Amino acid sequence: MTNRTIVVGLAGAFVGMTALLVIGGIVLHPIALALALPFGAVSYFLWYHATGRLHDQARRSAEAAGPTERQRARQRARAEANRERAYRAAGTDGGRGATGRRAGARGPGGARDPRDRAPTADRMTEREAYETLGLDRTADSEAVRRRYRERAKRLHPDGEDGDEEDFKELNEAYEVLKG
């Protein structure tokens, strides 16, 4: 027997008890009506759970709230691993060498630390990118990708409401955030 079958059975039992209490409250005594209220509420929540709507609502609420602490920790760990790969590819140690040098220091083979590069002046900032996509800074990469796709469909120059400049700005914002 599955959990859903059990919950449906319980919901049915509570619906039956609620119906009996309502009839008893009408025919016998109004106090039975007061007892029917909690049974009705439990019946509703069991039905809500059995149909899967409670789970869907909880998932949507969690997505709207943004990433959990565990997800943010995973994102930080991935970012750190990506930085380490970039340092290895550039032939540097990320400023963690024996000399402790950092700014402007060259690693083995004369390669510069990737973090020492100044951002280009004409590039969109991360904050502007989030504003362009209409997201807050806590949005995870999946939310960024979803919002980009939604807006790209609408703003594509070949589309009905297409605008080339807005589409270019949207692409730039996505490039900044997917980084």
Automatic annotation (TrEMBL):
Record's compositionally biased regions (Basic and acidic residues): 69-87, 112-130
Residue ranges of every copy of the J domain listed in the record: 128-179
One Gene Ontology term of the molecular function aspect: unfolded protein binding
SUPFAM superfamilies cross-referenced by the UniProt entry: Chaperone J-domain
Chain segments annotated as transmembrane: 7-26, 32-50
GO CC list: cytoplasm
Keywords: Chaperone, Membrane, Transmembrane, Transmembrane helix
Disordered: annotated span: 59-140
Manganese is among the record's keywords: no
GO terms classed as biological process: protein refolding
Gene3D superfamilies for this protein: DnaJ domain
Listed PROSITE patterns: DNAJ_2
PANTHER family in the cross-refs: DNAJ HOMOLOG 1, MITOCHONDRIAL-RELATED
The protein's name in its UniProt record: Molecular chaperone DnaJ
Organism, scientific name: Halorubrum tropicale
